[in-house]
Every structure is written in structure tokens, then in C-alpha cells.
Amino acid sequence: MSAPSSRGDDLLRGIWRENPVLVQLLGLCPMLAVTNTVANSLAMGLATFFVLLGSSVLVSTLKSVIPHEVRISAYILIIATFVTMADLVLAAVVPEIHRALGAFIALIVVNCIILGRQEAFASKRPVGRSALDAIGTGAGFMLALLLMGAFREILGSGSLLGVSLFGPGYEPWVVMILPPGGFLTLGAILLLLGWSRQRRAPQPRVRRWPHGVATGRAG
Amino acid sequence: MTDLAWILISAMVVNNFTLALFLGLCPFMGVSARVATALRMGAANMFVLVITSVSAWFLNTFILEHAPYLRLIAFIVVIASLVQVVEMAIKKLSPALFRDLGIFLPLITTNCAILGLAIFQTNRGYGLLEGLFFAVGAGLGLALALVLMASIRQRMELSDVPSLARGMGLVLIIAGGLSLAFMGFAGLLSA
Predict the structure, then answer these.
(1) Spatial CB neighbours of A163, under 8 Å, sequence gap ≥ 6
(2) What's the pTM value of the predicted model, to 2 decimals?
(3) pLDDT single digits (tens) A86-113
(4) At A145, which helix (H) or strand (E)?
(5) CA A132 to CA A213: how far, in whole Å?
(6) Which residues contact B61 (CB under 8 A, 6 or more apart)?
(7) Residue B121 burial (10 A CB sphere; 0-12, 13-18, 19+)
(8) Residue B16's closest chain A neighbor by CA?
(9) Best interface-test mutation with A: which of B15, B17, B25 has the largest number of A CBs within 10 A?
(10) Taking CB atoms and an 8 Å limit, are B29 and A25 in contact across chains?
């Protein structure tokens, strides 16, 4: 946690600079499992956003009441309550998407992003700032989900939100909507991000050692 | 009997928890740098999965009929506390076993593979015996994926990978390859 931070920073930090998925590599299970179409990504993103915001606000409100020894269990109970709510609402409002997401809505409970924000932020900060942090992190998660979802749906089905993009002549890359496509897409996105980071980083002034010489710095 | 065997094989290779269903990715990425560690992680996973399967069956049969909306909360609380109790018992009875498996137990208690197993088992209406075979199959599948990944990563340390690709990006691409290979098992079930 970088020391002095303003409210704006609470909100913006999670969206890109400390993006929970692309930078911190948390919450990979839902990230890979449900992003085969944009609609599924969106539903998953909204559900996670709701759970994160609700539990952050509640945890931060109750922080002086929850005994320190059982705080993790208390957070999990709070999160599970919100997930049950999201699960029932999705089942009632958009049953076909709920079916497509299957068990993964229930599995939001064990999404480490949410528990991580409670432990690292909401349990120590006032309600307002916790809510801002939850909004930022939730938006960052949704951004990553939509990025993956768009990429996989465009390549894998040749459509976006169910609207065909390339006409009937397009041969879809079926593998992209199957499980391996999830791994490959996220791997490619991480490699691209790493590449752009490496290009922007200032070149080190130290002498380059020939290949194979141990320099004591991690590679 | 053959049904039970199919449940086991299906959970192990065809619908492999890690490579086809994306469950338990955190240990898959985090603890797959060494084969020996991966094996122990696999064993610890199997152990928790079996406990989970039995307790989920118990909760579903005797308690949750009356309050299905409490399912998620009940699963988490019961599984987490049961694993804690068993962990303490192992610590007391067999310190050697605890040293090998113990450090992983808190990590995997609320891992998505564990809760996922409980939920899948509920959705498919498995009984006690079917649930046990499902848990063992899923545990074997997780261990298989972990060990395969760890073996590849150990070999990779010796190869000349560009600095850009060192890290998670490449691990994910390799996982994609493994996942593709496991898709080859999909034909087994329709036969």
C-alpha cells in the first residue's frame, strides 16, 4: 500500500495501475472461466462489483465490532451473504446467463480479490474511502473481464455481444471460446503488457554482463 | 460400478478441474515451480477434497433441505472449520505428515476447487459413494495438472527464455497448451 493517498487515488488506483487481474494476478478462476462471450463477462463483472462494493461498505462499517481473531471468517460470511443475494437475483432476472455462468457465480465467494480488499483496505479505512476503493477495484476487474470477453468472442465466434461482425465468410477460431483459449488469451495480454512496460522503462545504466554470468539480480 | 469409474475418470482427465474448468488456479500458478512441492500440494488437495465431499453430502442430505438459500454459507463455514480441526489433529498425531502437508491446508481451504467440488456435487445430485469417487478423481486430476506444470517449469529454468516472457505470461501460454492436450480426452466419454 503506497503511503499517502487521496480519495481520487483510492478510486483510480484499482482500475489500471494496480489492476487486480492484469497487475496483481488475482481472481484468475472467474477471469478465465466465464469470459467466452462479452455478455457473460458483463454479468460476472456486475455481480462481482456488487459483492465487492457491498462487502467493503459493510466490513468497513463493522470494523470496530468484528473481533480481530475471527475477522477472516466474519469477512467470508459477509461476502457469502452478498454472493447469495447476487446469485438469486441473477437467477430471477437473467436465467439464461445464470445458467451459462453455472457454479461460477457461487464461486465469487472464494475470489481472492474481494477478500484481499477487505483485509488490506476496508478493515482499516472509513466507509467512504472503502466504497471508492471497492468501486475502483470492481471497475478494474470488469475492465479486464470485458477485455478478455471481447477478444475471445470476436476471434472465437466472429461476433460481439451476439452481433456478427465479419459476415458468413469468417472461419471462427473455435479454440478461443474453449478452455485453452482462456489461458492463451490471458497469457498473450500479460505478455503484451509486460512488453509495453519494458519498452517504457528507462534503460538501466549498469554494465550489462555477458550471458550466463550471475549478477545477483533476479532475472 | 462402471458409473463410478466414469465419474472418476471424467473428473480426472476429461473435465480436469484445473485445465478444463479453471478451478484451483491459484495453487496451479503459485505452487507449480517444483515437482516435489507440487506432489505434496496435490496430496493435501486430495485430502481436503475428500473431507469436502463427505461434509457437503452430509449437509445436503440432513440439513440444507430445509434452508437451501443457506447452502453457500453453510458449505464454507463447515468445510473451513472441519479442515481446521483435522489439521490440528494431524499436527498432534503425526508431526512429519503435518510438515509435509500442513502449510498448504490453510491455503486451499477456501480455494475455488474445494467449493467448486461441493457445488458441482450438489448440482449433479451425487450420493455419498459417487461424491467420494468424484472427489478422488478431481484430486488426482489437480495433482496431475500440478505435476505436469511443475515438470515443464523445472525444465524451462534451464532454457534460454527471453526476459520479457519470464513470469506468468509464459506460464499461462503453457497452461493453454496443456489444456489443448487435455481436450483430446473429450472423446472418451461420448464413446
Answers:
(1) none
(2) 0.82
(3) 988 988 998 888 888 878 888 888 888 8
(4) helix A127-157
(5) 47
(6) none
(7) buried
(8) A179
(9) B25
(10) yes
